[in-house]
TrEMBL record:
<protein>
    <submittedName>
        <fullName>Immune-related, lectin-like receptor 3 isoform X1</fullName>
    </submittedName>
</protein>
<dbReference type="GO" id="GO:0038187">
    <property type="term" value="F:pattern recognition receptor activity"/>
</dbReference>
<dbReference type="InterPro" id="IPR001304">
    <property type="entry name" value="C-type_lectin-like"/>
</dbReference>
<feature type="domain" description="C-type lectin">
    <location>
        <begin position="154"/>
        <end position="280"/>
    </location>
</feature>
<dbReference type="InterPro" id="IPR033989">
    <property type="entry name" value="CD209-like_CTLD"/>
</dbReference>
<dbReference type="Pfam" id="PF00059">
    <property type="entry name" value="Lectin_C"/>
</dbReference>
<dbReference type="GO" id="GO:0009897">
    <property type="term" value="C:external side of plasma membrane"/>
</dbReference>
<feature type="transmembrane region" description="Helical">
    <location>
        <begin position="46"/>
        <end position="69"/>
    </location>
</feature>
<dbReference type="InterPro" id="IPR016187">
    <property type="entry name" value="CTDL_fold"/>
</dbReference>
<dbReference type="GO" id="GO:0006955">
    <property type="term" value="P:immune response"/>
</dbReference>
<keyword id="KW-0472">Membrane</keyword>
<keyword id="KW-1133">Transmembrane helix</keyword>
<dbReference type="InterPro" id="IPR016186">
    <property type="entry name" value="C-type_lectin-like/link_sf"/>
</dbReference>
<keyword id="KW-0430">Lectin</keyword>
<keyword id="KW-0812">Transmembrane</keyword>
<dbReference type="GO" id="GO:0045954">
    <property type="term" value="P:positive regulation of natural killer cell mediated cytotoxicity"/>
</dbReference>
<dbReference type="InterPro" id="IPR050111">
    <property type="entry name" value="C-type_lectin/snaclec_domain"/>
</dbReference>
């Protein structure tokens, strides 16, 4: 096999070059040496070709690897980006979670405070209930009643002495808005209590607006059924005198005292006059 190959290479060489022919004929003694050189050149070519082919394959491989590397690195960077986005979202979620947890914590604290406040309020309520019960027992035992602020207690009633002046109908309505009525005087003691507490004339809950000379209390009780404390004059006209000199309609509303300054007895007066007034209410229990 080796010889065939050698011959063919030799044939190829002789057929190719006259120079080689002459060399062959002229330097037959160098035949083996030449043959070896030719062989070496042939081998070099073969190797070169093999090398080139290998190089081509190697480059191809490199390219393939490079392409693969690029695609892999693109994927990697995409995943990295994805990772960054996801980690950011995770951060946001964590932040939200922290916020929610903080809010929950605050709510919990608020809840605790509210509960504490609620039990405190409940405690205070039970204390005040206890106070009311005690007061009630005290009230029952001593007969002492409770009046609203600015009202004066006497007997089983509360009295309000106004500081403003109004006409009789306004006074009557004002006492009602304050939870009472214009005072109804039913006893000497009540009359004395009132006169000792006023320094000028005040409206009381008595009038003869409906029928002249028929005096009625604001609860529609006729005066004829209770004691009366009209002013009596030794030398002159006693009250009620239905004075018509200043107004033709006469005087239809009763007041404690007289504009002159007396306060001990009642006088009838013009209902449109503006006076202070006394309200009365039942004592709270
Ligand atoms: C990012 O990750 C999500 C969840 O794993 C996945 O559904 C999505 O396809 C990914 N995107 C990229 C560009 O890798
Ligand atoms: C965080 O909470 C805000 C409002 O409370 C909301 O708009 C946002 O979408 C939330 N973020 C995430 C990642 O849940
Ligand atoms: C609880 O009561 C205190 C004092 O009475 C008050 O300052 C606080 O605001 C109350 N808290 C709530 C949640 O109502
Ligand atoms: C009081 O005066 C009015 C008006 O003048 C009169 O109508 C009435 O009869 C008088 N009453 C008395 C008791 O004098
Ligand atoms: C009292 O005053 C009011 C308001 O000015 C008035 O409407 C009312 O008629 C007066 N009453 C009398 C009796 O003058
Ligand atoms: C308080 O005393 C008044 C007057 O004596 C009485 O009418 C009332 O019933 C008493 N209140 C209580 C709660 O006992
Ligand atoms: Ca009259
Ligand atoms: Ca009079």
């Amino acid at each position: 096999m080796g010889s065939v190959y050698e011959n063919s290479v030799f044939a190829f060489s002789t057929g190719n070059s006259d120079e080689n022919d002459s060399q062959y004929k002229g330097h037959f003694s160098n035949y083996r040496e030449s043959k070896r050189e030719v062989n070496t050149a042939k081998w070099t070519k073969v190797l070169l070709i093999v090398f080139a082919v290998s190089l081509v394959f190697a480059l191809g491989g490199l390219c393939a690897v490079r392409i693969q590397y690029v695609s892999v690195s693109a994927q990697l960077s995409a995943q990295e980006t994805n990772g960054t986005i996801m980690s950011r979202q995770l951060d946001k979620l964590t932040a939200n979670f922290t916020t929610v947890r903080d809010h929950l914590h605050i709510n919990e604290l608020l809840m605790k405070e509210l509960t504490a406040n609620y039990s405190r309020v409940k405690e205070q309520l039970s204390i005040s209930e206890e106070t009311v019960r005690k007061l009630s027992r005290f009230n029952q035992s001593s007969g002492c009643a409770i009046c609203a602020i600015h009202w004066t207690h006497s007997g089983e009633k509360c009295y309000y002495f106004s500081t403003v002046k109004m006409n009789w109908t306004q006074s009557r309505d004002h006492c009602v808005t304050k939870g009472g009525h214009l005072v109804i005087i039913t006893s000497q003691a009540e009359q004395e209590f009132l006169t000792s507490n006023v320094k000028e004339t005040h409206w009381i809950g008595l009038n003869d607006l409906d029928t002249e000379g028929r005096w009625l209390w604001v609860d529609n009780q006729p005066l004829s059924q209770t004691e009366e404390f009209w002013m009596k004059r030794e030398n002159g006209v006693s009250e009620p005198d239905n004075w018509t000199k200043q107004h033709v309609d006469g005087e239809d509303c009763a007041s404690l005292g007289h504009p002159d300054g007396e306060t001990d007895f009642w006088t009838d007066a013009y209902c449109f006059e503006e006076k202070r007034f006394v309200c009365e209410a039942a004592a709270a229990v």
